[in-house]
Amino acid sequence: MTRVKKGVNALKTRRNVLKRVKGFRFGRGTKERQAYEAIVHAESYAFAHRRDKKSNMRKLWNVRLSIPLKENGLSYSKFIGALKKANIILDRKILSQLSIESPKTLERVMAKVK
To answer: Is 27 helix (H, G, I), strand (E, B) or coil?
Structure first.
């Protein structure tokens, strides 16, 4: 079997790894072993936090929507239940945008639900 020298491939891999950890703190941005470890953790956190972002946004929509509802004497949960009973198909994101951008439209929706 012929001898295979892996210098070119090793350098390319090392260069790509260090390029991905550019800007990381301490040795993680310059040392190969620590860089590999940092990449593994960073990717797992990025995956998990992409999922978390979705629930955080939903919580934000709920808060944005519950403020004008409380001013009009409705609770959030009763409002959502009444929307479903009235067959009004607006999701929480749209409703929260309405509460910020056009409160009069949201008031009309609330009037229909009551």
So the answer is: helix
Output the pLDDT for position 19. 97
Phi, psi of 70 (to 5 degrees): -65, -35
Contact 79, 114 (CB under 8 A): no
Domain span at residue 64 reads: 8-113
Task: Kindly report the pTM of this predicted structure.
Answer: 0.69
Spatial neighbors of 98 by CB under 8 A, at least 6 apart, are: 90, 105, 106, 109
In whole angstroms, give the CA distance from residue 65 to residue 95.
Answer: 7
Domain count, the chain: 1
Q: Examine residue 14 and state whether it is found in any structural domain, yes or no.
A: yes
